[in-house]
Amino acid sequence: MAISIRPVVSPGLAGCCTIFSVIAVVILLALASAFSRHVEVLTGSKNDPKDPSVAAATCYAAALIYGIFVVFCGLQMAVHRRYPRGVQL
Q1: Distance (Å, whole) CA 72 – CA 81
Q2: At what angle are helices 11-36 and 52-82 packed, to 10 degrees?
Q3: Cβ neighbours for 31, distance < 8 A, ≥ 6 positions apart
Q4: In three state form, how does the secondary structure of the chain look?
Q5: C-alpha angle with apex 45: 60 to 28, nearest 5 degrees?
Q6: CA gap 25, 76 in Å, rounded
Q7: Which UniProt keywords apply (predicted)?
Q8: pTM (2 decimals)?
Q9: Which residue in 10, 21, 33, 51 is deepest, having the highest Cβ count within 10 Å?
């Protein structure tokens, strides 16, 4: 039994979202790692977060959300490759 999957977003938007989401995951994981290790540059002044562990957890949660976007948009790109341009869905 074949499953009929239709694309939700355009191929250009899916590609752009995938690229930006991958970059965001990398940056957020780097920040979360730095906050969890209490790096002095991020936690040394009066204006920085009082509990870096909470900031690290927030960065990890945001990276997870962006990871979900990577999966979703990557699957959208795969659906667009399956149905070439001009095919009626």
Answers
A1: 14
A2: 160
A3: 42, 59
A4: CCCCCCCCCCHHHHHHHHHHHHHHHHHHHHHHHHHHCCCHHHHCCCCCCCCHHHHHHHHHHHHHHHHHHHHHHHHHHHHHHHCCCCCCC
A5: 20
A6: 19
A7: Membrane, Transmembrane, Transmembrane helix
A8: 0.81
A9: 21
Low-confidence ranges of the chain (pLDDT < 70): 1-4, 84-89
pLDDT, one tens digit per residue, over 46-60 is 777 788 899 999 999
Question: For the chain, what are the domain ranges?
Answer: 11-82
At 84 the pLDDT is: 65
pLDDT the model gives residue 43: 77
Residue linked to tokens 């979900």: 68
**Contact status, residue 70 vs residue 25, Cβ threshold 8 Å:** yes
